[in-house]
Design brief:
By secondary structure, the protein is an alpha+beta fold. Helix content is 36%, strand content 14%. It is elongated, with a radius of gyration of 34 Å.
């Protein structure tokens, strides 16, 4: 189809003359072999169907490979060396599933769809009712020319391929890993865990923290756990801040007497998207997240007073041990981290 968008606008007889002139300027139409040979048309129809059915087969093989091939299995491929067998199988099958649908659609349009030339004159953006009716009529005409309704083999094979195509997208959701479950409830904080300065590791006495002061802290056993696990997962869940205020300034806490002499401990991880927080305003006792400006009132159970965070900062109950150092009374009573991990069990 040829569209002459750059021709000047015309109306009535002038428009008809312009269309005739534009059509005359087009090269003579040469019919394709499939236009004049029914056998060639049927052969092209079978080829298009094979493309679509091949895509459906690749989709099924993708699912089979995802389930059957171990994720740690390797295979040697000449020219590439040793590669992961699962990645190769999934990439090839899913890539072919996409390619074959596209190749079938292109072959369909090139060999079977009507390719008559059409000249469309440029018109104003505000179409008239007659133009809209003409557009609907043209759409119906082109739909009939595509042969979608008249060629059931092509139609059914395409519908089969398109129906199976979303399956890999659903299957791949398994690679996102399991839901966190209790993973965010289980931190290194337990009864008697000593609180130390991050990153020096020095234990903290109540006298080390002045009124209005803030200290970033971690469990004493965190460095050893990080070395054993080889990652920062434990730190991401266990990081806390300590703040000190006058005891009479504390409006509420998440548990009875969870402070020690006005010293409060809260998770350092914002409950919005998990940014670390340490911007503390002494006068208002507000803690500001630098990422999206969520603001928490540490004097009032760490409740949200501004911003997108959906829940308060979890509080850690604290006391001192026999040596006078700050320790945890217990672990967090609420999940730490972003609130979108909640599953109705907080």
């Amino acid at each position: 189809m040829t569209t002459s968008d750059n021709l000047p606008a015309h109306t009535g007889e002038d428009e008809a003359a312009a269309i005739a002139a534009a059509t005359a300027a087009l090269p003579a139409h040469r019919p394709r072999r499939t236009d004049v040979d029914p056998k060639a048309a049927r052969r092209a129809e079978r080829q298009v169907s094979l493309f679509f059915l091949g895509s459906a087969l690749m989709t099924v093989l993708f699912v089979v490979a995802f389930v059957a091939i171990p994720v740690d299995q390797d295979v040697y491929i000449w020219g590439f060396g040793t590669v992961n067998a699962s990645n190769i199988a999934l990439g090839v099958t899913f890539g072919l599933a996409i390619f074959l649908i596209g190749a079938g659609a292109i072959h369909w349009s090139k060999k079977l769809m009507n390719e008559k030339e059409v000249v469309q004159m440029r018109h104003s953006l505000a179409s008239t009712d007659e133009d809209r009716d003409s557009a609907v009529e043209a759409f119906d005409d082109f739909s009939a020319d595509s042969g979608f309704a008249q060629r059931p083999v092509v139609r059914r094979s395409l519908l089969t391929a398109m129906a199976l195509f979303p399956i890999p997208l659903v299957v791949m959701l398994r690679d996102l890993g399991p839901l966190p479950g209790n993973a965010l409830r289980e931190t290194l904080w337990t009864k008697g865990t000593r609180i130390v300065v991050d990153p020096t590791g020095n234990p903290i006495r109540p006298t080390d923290l002045a009124i209005g002061g803030l200290i970033s802290a971690i469990p004493a056993d965190l460095p050893q756990v990080q070395e054993e696990e080889g990652n920062l997962n434990a730190r991401a869940k266990a990081a806390i801040i300590l703040v000190r205020m006058e005891p009479q300034e504390i409006v509420s806490q998440q548990g009875d007497n969870w402070d020690y002499g006005g010293i409060l401990a809260f998770s350092k991880i914002c409950t919005h998207v998990g940014c670390p927080i340490a911007l503390y305003e002494q006068r208002s006792h507000h803690l500001l997240c630098p990422c999206h400006q969520s603001t928490f009132d540490l004097a009032d159970s760490g409740n949200v007073v501004f911003g997108p965070a959906a829940r308060r900062l979890p509080q850690l109950p604290i006391t001192i041990d026999q040596e006078g150092y700050l320790v945890a009374v217990d672990g967090f009573a609420e999940p730490v981290g972003p609130s979108f991990w909640e599953r109705g069990d907080s």
